[in-house]
Amino acid sequence: MDLIDGCRVFVATVDSGSFAGAGERLGMSGKLASKYLGQLEDRLGVRLLQRTTRRLGMTVAGEKLYARLPHWLDELDEIRSDLKESGSGLSGTLRVSAPLTFGEIRVQQVLRRFQARHDDLVIDLRLSDSYVDLAAEGIDLAIRIGNLASSALIARRLGRTAMVVAAAPAYLERHGTPKTPQDLIRHECIRDTNLRTPGGGWPLAENGEPVRVPVRGHYLVNSARAARDICLEAEGIALCPDYVVGEDLAAGRLTQLLKEHQPAPLAINAVYLDGRRMPRRVRAFLDFLKTESFNFSEAPSGDQG
Asked: In whole angstroms, how large is the CA radius of gyration of the chain?
């Protein structure tokens, strides 16, 4: 067993949660992946994984190794790529974090187009509405929407998205159309718990000033797409990003409400760690992102009540 192969098996096993998953990623059997991991442990003289019939867990030594090993392997892949005669291809693994719905709708498409240009590049897209720790998770770059907290991360603006109040025509026929933000208090509202708004409520605007409207309703969801689906069934009013409901508004399946009370668009940023050498594949992906449009606020809104 080559030491580097053993290291790759260890990282793939931790990432996938099983020897079978590691083998699938690396093009070998799960049995061989387990053998390589055992040989790596023998060579290092430490146990890296605790094996039970149900799961694999890292030991303290394994956690220490995993904290550094992915970046070391990426650096090695980068050196190999730089030494190629053409020097044009990218290799290694590009690890990107993105919000769940935005990642499914938009980011995965961008990554697919980027990967199509680089046959040796592996994409690791991790979707979560929680803010991940880039250093701890080994993430190269994260896409984030909204105001950024003060941190050591470097941010690059990609575009913007608007938050849209929308309802199905059938709902408005039964319950009437709200004319002011305060009218929402009397309506059934589908609340997305991912909205990070101090004090709760929906962030809107009145006379050019931000207001928080305390809405109520029978549905709380942690997905803008789920809120949109329930809204399409005429079960309430939703506040969703325009990239989620833009097509529905254009097709007339949903109607935008309170357009004059729409809050300022939210920024879409790419963030990455400062103070470390950026791999060439990450620099290339950041440059590629410049060619993509991430401005969604121009989406047709349909008729307004």
From this structure: 24
Which CATH number fits the domain 84-159+265-295, given the four candidates 3.40.190.10, 2.60.120.620, 3.10.310.10, 3.30.70.100? 3.40.190.10
- Two tokens, residue 63: 């956690």
Tens-place pLDDT, residues 162-205: 999 999 999 999 999 999 999 999 999 999 988 876 666 899 99
Identify the CA nearest to 134 among candidates 12, 14, 272: 272
Choose among 99, 111, 39, 84: nearest CA to 224. Answer: 99
Query: Going by CATH, does the domain composed of 1-71 fall within 3.40.50.2300?
Result: no
CATH T-level topology, domain 163-264: D-Maltodextrin-Binding Protein; domain 2 (3.40.190)
- Long-range contacts made by residues 111-117, C-beta under 8 angstroms, separation at least 24? 113/288, 114/284, 114/285, 114/288
Q: For residue 290, how many other CB atoms are within 10 A of its CB? A: 8
Q: For 110-236, where are the E strands, in sequence order? A: 121-127, 141-145, 153-161, 163-167, 188-192, 202-206, 209-213, 216-221
Q: What is the pLDDT confidence band of residue 85, given thresholds at 50, 70 and 90?
A: very low
Distance CA(77)–CA(124), nearest Å, equals 15
